[in-house]
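Example 5.3 — Cytochrome c4
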Amino acid sequence: MKKVLIGVMLTIGVTGLAHAAGDKNAGKEKAAVCGACHGPTGVSAADNFPNLAGQGERYLIKQITDIKSKKRVVLEMTGMTDNLSEQDIADIAAFYASQSAPLSVVPKSKVEPKDSKGTVDLKLAERIYRAGDLKKGIPACTACHMPTGKGNAYAGFPHLAGQHAKYIAKQLTDFREGDRTNDGDSKIMRAVAEKLSNKEIQALSYYVQGLYK
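Solution (predicted structure tokens):
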């Protein structure tokens, strides 16, 4: 499993290097319309819209480009990227990458959070995030997203810490069900998500939102 992950990281790390250099100042102006959903600086108030602040440029460029080309279908983004040029995308990505990522959501008490599905098992999530599940063939999330959840901007692995739990849960579910497929030829996220139960997805989503310790 470790060899597979290293191979994937190397593949992603050496591909897609060529893209227009982004101008964060130009990107601020171009991203103004995005603020309606993602917040003025990329920190969204609504938990169904992802935080973009602090994400790596490579990841942002890929996602915006994939949404534009319909490789990634996001209904809320319909028509929003149609008129963006390669330079526009690079500028917008540079702007959001330059913003401070949201702080992880720290619980006010030691009581584990609850959602509509019941109490969230954060201990289960921590085990999977940091050590994976050998029996199920699930690698540790830290291999790509780092122990802190900051991801790997160079390799294009996204920043997860502080991201909305609701958004994370939807992405993992979409990868599992095959509704999101833009994780490359390696299918690394689909391969992981298809092994996760609803309970594990729920727990991991809340865990990375705050990276509870």
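Remark. The domain at 19-98 is CATH 1.10.760.10 (Cytochrome Bc1 Complex; Chain D, domain 2).
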